[in-house]
Amino acid sequence: MTPFDKFCEEHDVKNFLLETNNKDEAFEAKYGFPKKETWAVDWSFTIWLYNHIFGYMEAAKGGCIDLHYHKFTILGEEYDQLECCQMIIKLLEDYVLKTEGNEYRTWEEEQEGFDSLRKAIQIWAELIFAMWW
Asked: 14-18, 41-45, 65-69, 78-82: which has the highest mean pLDDT?
């Protein structure tokens, strides 16, 4: 079970991409990913980023990556790579819970969720070039 699927299960959130049966082998061969991922690219990106951040942090535990070495200035504050990864995860979780995880959400809650995704992407844009080993 992926970290994202585990989070969804723990918070009773449906990962609707799992339920979408839109198999198109020619599309997948041409673009390298399932067509169903284009149905809601924000959701697909959230899943991709969430799982890849978790995977990267696990790989770092092997000792090849010092997640405290690189520093980033985010909204005027300095954070190391690990802190940025953790912030991204929390913001993505907030996005999921305030949008897809809440069928009775208000417009304001949904906008807060969108703001969380925007912040996660902004942090990711600063962090991405240090995400290698």
From this structure: 78-82
What is the spatial distance between Cα 67 and Cα 71, in angstroms, rounded to a whole number? 9
DSSP string for residues in 13-46: ---HHHH-----HHHHHHHSS-GGGGTTHHHHHH
What's the whole-model pTM score? 0.89
Rounded-to-integer distance, Cα 32 and Cα 70, Å: 32
Q: How many helices (H) and strands (E) does the chain have?
A: 6, 2
Contact 89, 46 (CB under 8 A): no
- Crossing angle of helices 107-127 and 81-98, in 10° steps, is 160
Please state the separation of Cα 129 from the chain's center in Å.
Answer: 17
Q: What is the pLDDT of residue 106?
A: 86
**Amino acid identity, residue 67?**
L
Q: How far is residue 5's CA from residue 11's CA, in Å, rounded to a whole number?
A: 10
